[in-house]
Specification:
The chain is α/β, with parallel strands linked by helices and 368 residues long. It contains 18 helices and 13 strands. A seven-stranded parallel beta sheet has the order 3-2-1-4-5-6-7, with helices on both faces. α11 links the parallel β9 and β10.
């Protein structure tokens, strides 16, 4: 079959690439055309647009780039029409993908959604329209199946693909990793400021204020594949902090603690059993709009899945030097760390085990 896959951001590229590999195993005639990134390119097929070209964050930023986004949506529709895929697979990235999906269903294309839109976070009633233009929904969070059931929408729970992604990477040799990146013997605190320029700008300068306050630790920035080193370099001085690009999983595997921007990275950090403080700060306009429409008790996936506050969330004005110092101190204490480790074990059990990519690929081949 011919598959048209639309993914955004580094995490979407990762999960889409693993799904493509699984589809190749289930369908020897699989052909791919896609919006994604480098990992998807390595699997094979034709890259239409790289996710770096459309990395917009927050309501205000989207409004400022609306003309460009609308142009991409128009181009995507024309490209799908020309390619005539047997199945379209949407991966996360709901702002863009749902617009394409609504159009695609009307055109008679088979629509599949993997890593479902987070409509449970805000404006849940959107499910009533979404279920009319998504033929098959594959969800990855344990509470999502029951959520959609309330709207008479049967979806497939396939487990979380991060379990596969983490299991597939070779075990990191800590000694060799430290030597390769010229690290000393101090315990590591990883800084994960996000992947988009807007969020890195908001997050990293505050995170870096911790360096002088915790001199017995070494701080390392996890560089995202979507950004160049020179962009990060503008935030710190030589020898103030280490920088390691495109090796976040290796870095987490040797980390003692982490400061993490809200998103998929909070779950990745938990699966590596690293105590963390979750951080988030957007533009004032984006924050005010979000407060109006988001009804969740928590913003981190760790707390949402466990339905309780396990990791501390510092949001908007709470994300400041004083609070961050206090919360980082807390997760370095043995008593608090033990509680976190127990909660992380519970989290992993709830995620449904490995095999998300394989399960999803089998269902896509069967249902299209």
């Amino acid at each position: 079959m011919k598959y048209y896959i639309i993914a955004g951001e580094a995490s979407g590229d990762l999960h889409a690439s693993n799904l493509m590999k699984a589809l190749q195993e289930q369908d020897v005639n699989a052909e791919f055309r896609f919006w994604g990134g480098d990992l998807m390119q390595k699997v094979g097929g034709t890259l239409v647009k790289h996710y770096k070209e459309r990395a917009f964050m927050g309501f205000a930023e989207i409004l400022l780039n609306l003309r460009k986004i609308l142009g991409m949506i128009s181009f995507c529709k024309k490209d799908i029409t020309k390619y005539q895929p047997d199945a379209i697979v949407f991966i996360d990235n709901s702002g863009f993908n749902l617009r394409i999906a609504k159009w695609a269903k009307k055109q008679g294309f088979k629509t599949n959604y993997y890593i479902a839109p987070q409509v449970w976070a805000s404006r849940a009633s959107r499910v009533n329209s979404i279920k009319h233009y998504i033929d098959n929904m594959y969800v990855i969070l344990p509470f999502e199946q029951a959520f959609y059931k309330k709207y008479n929408y049967d979806v497939h729970f396939v487990g979380h693909p991060l379990l596969d992604a983490i299991a597939d990477i070779p075990k990191t040799d800590a000694t060799l990793f430290r030597k390769e990146h010229q690290l000393d013997d101090k315990p590591v605190i990883a800084l994960l400021p996000g992947s988009r320029k807007q969020e890195i700008t908001k997050m990293l300068s505050v995170m870096l204020k911790m360096v002088t306050k915790f001199p017995t630790y070494q701080f390392i920035i996890a560089g995202a594949p979507s950004q160049e080193y020179e962009f990060y370099k503008s935030f710190f001085k030589d020898n103030q902090v280490k920088f390691i690009a495109n090796k976040t999983y290796n870095l987490l595997s040797i980390s003692h603690a982490a400061l993490v921007t809200s998103g998929t990275a909070t779950l990745e950090t938990a699966l590596f059993k690293v105590p963390q403080v979750v951080c988030y700060k957007g533009s004032n306009l984006s924050y005010l709009i979000a407060k109006k429409i988001i009804t969740l008790k928590f913003i981190s996936l760790v707390n949402l899945i466990l339905d309780k506050e396990v990791v501390t969330e510092l949001i908007q004005h709470d994300f400041n030097e004083k609070r961050l110092t206090k919360e980082l101190t807390k997760i370095l204490e043995d008593k608090h760390r033990e509680k976190l480790f127990l909660a992380y074990e519970e989290l992993e059990k709830k995620l449904g085990g490995k095999g998300a990519s394989e399960k999803t690929a089998k269902l896509i081949v069967k249902n299209n």
